[in-house]
Amino acid sequence: MTDNANSWFGPPDNTTGAWKTAADAGSFSRLWRAFMSARVTIASVLLIMQAFVYAFGSVSAQWSIVICAGYLVATAATRIWMRPTPPGTRLDAQWLFSIGVDVLVFSALNFLQTSGVNYTPLFALPVLLASVLGPILLALGTAAAVTLLLLADAWWVSLSMGELASRLLQSGLSGSGFFAVALLANQLALRLAREEQLAKTSQSVARTQRRVNELVVETLTDGVLVIDSRGIVRSANPASRRLLTHGETVAAAPFALASQPAWGPLEQIMGMTFMRQVPQESELTLHFAARDARRLRVRTRLADSQNDVSESLCVMFLEDLREMEARVRTEKMAAMGRMSAAVAHEIRNPLSAISQANALLEEDLHDVAQRQLTGMVRQNTERLAKIVDEILNIARVQVVGPDEMMPSLMLDDAAGRIALEWSSQSGGGNRLALALGSPRASVPFDPEHLRRVMVNLLDNALRYAAGGPACIEIGTRIEAGQARLSVWSDGAPLEKSVQAHLFEPFFSSESRSSGLGLYICRELCERYGAVIGYQRAFRGIVEGNEFHLTLRRVSFIRPNRLSDANSYIA
Q1: What is the pLDDT of residues 239-256, one digit of tens each?
Q2: Which of 181, 465, 492, 513 has minimal CB crowding within 10 Å?
Q3: DSSP string covering 508-525
């Protein structure tokens, strides 16, 4: 089977020429300008040659000088003012001003020549112009026109000089050569256009693929380094530059691994990769000047260089072991949470039965010692029931989807109401103070969930507060377009080891606590896009512990007269 698209003679229906798409405009313009410049050069040479002939005494050359001068003007005007446009299949205006002018001028010179100069080779220019820049029909038509003119010239000359047969034979051979030139040049132009189009398509695909690869590498959370055999980092994505420093910034590639002492382990594993010519994998520690260290998991691969196939490149993948361990802990905690929820659900029913049985038993007991035992059972079953509820609450906390309607509340009104309820139930008295400074702020939060968060924080504050007047304070304010709710107490500072695990599940500094309170607070805050944190803060001259919530998407409405009071003692 013949592949017409790749055959020498090209597709059989080629009537529009090689330069038929917008992508070929640049190549066609360059070829067109080259041909037009060649025409100007040939016209200049012909004019100079005719001037020399006239200067040496050939009076009959004056008409040739006029023709060559006019030809030079026409070619120069075409080169300067005409715009490159692919010719059609017919003899249009552009053909007349370029190919047609060439054929007429060369024919006139051939008819008028008296010095024995043969102008027949000049006809190759219009034939090539039509073949390379036009379709096959225009190329063959131009070759046919040139052949007919040569035959007519041979017949005309033979009338006065004889030798008709030999002159016709010579003109016919020249015409056959022009036909061959037209066919071959046209097919070469077609092949050139196809190859250029394929090259442009391949280049576009390669450019797109390179951009996609660069985007993928740039957005990777793992670091990627491309290092040559001399230890020069040729490419480094943002994640790798972050892992290679501790607070500083790394200049964009290229840079040398040997430029920083802390990168010595990376240089060693790179050298081992090149020496053994096999991938390496190891866990390394980068020690920085400030006594800080970063533990990394490093994997290396070898790749051929795009510039020199004899030079290999080492591709190094960096992973932060702390982040890996954090992901593992998160996965373990998620698995443990699912298992705990299942266990808590199974415990709830028998626990309720034990509590009810203990209550019934306690009604029939009159001995003080026995009632103390049933009281201990009641207290511990209540404690177990609370732990079960907290575990199940963790399982119920889900992030609000983008299509779900998020509840909202007036922050000051809700905080003040919850504070008064808690104060009346816990006996806070004058120990609780309010400093509400955002009377018009409406924040996205469910009222019941906010109550659970605040009650948990207030219970912790009451547990560690000194107990004097205003030892606990609830405050609200607006910062940078966001609402801030804080629960402050004048308790002693928390230990560093406790601060590092405050919001982790099942962590508590007390033996009888489940360690789920602050974890549930964090989960509820994340549900509404809020952030909970801890810090030491002053209230006046007194320093204490502050848990604060930063709530997003603050909107303002007209003030409520019930919340005009910014501060009072509950």
Answers
A1: 888 888 776 666 677 888
A2: 492
A3: -SSTT--S-HHHHHHHHH
At 530, list the tokens: 């809020």
Q: What is the C-alpha to C-alpha distance for residues 467 and 431, in angstroms, rounded to an integer?
A: 7
Closest by CA to 283, choosing from 312, 249, 314, 324, is 324
CB atoms within 10 A of CB 503: 18
Neighbours of 246 (CB within 10 A): 15
User: What is the 3 state secondary structure string of 310-347?
Assistant: CCEEEEEEEEEHHHHHHHHHHHHHHHHHHHHHHHHHHH
Tokens of 397: 């906390």
Confidence of residue 306 (pLDDT cuts 50, 70, 90): low
Apex CA 125: angle with CA 36 and CA 112, to 5°? 110
**pLDDT on residue 507:** 67
Report domain extents, the chain: 22-200, 220-320, 326-396, 409-569
- Give the whole-number percent of the chain exceeding pLDDT 70: 80
Q: CB-based burial of residue 64 (10 Å sphere; 0-12 exposed, 13-18 middle, 19+ buried)? A: buried
Q: What one-letter code names the amino acid at 364?
A: D
| pLDDT tens readout for residues 25-74 | 677 788 888 888 888 888 888 888 878 877 776 656 677 788 888 888 88
Nearest to 358 by CA among 345, 372, 344, 346: 372
Q: Are 464 and 492 in contact (CB under 8 A)?
A: yes
Domain 409-569 in this protein, CATH class: alpha beta
Q: Residue 12: which pLDDT band, with cuts at 50, 70 and 90?
A: very low
User: CA separation (Å) from 34 to 28, 38, 153, 421, 533?
Assistant: 10, 6, 30, 92, 73
Q: Does domain 220-320 have CATH number 3.30.450.20?
A: yes
Determine the Cα–Cα distance for residues 125 and 113; give it in Å rounded to an integer.
19
Burial 229-243 (b: 16+ CB within 10 A, else e): eebebebbbbbbbbb
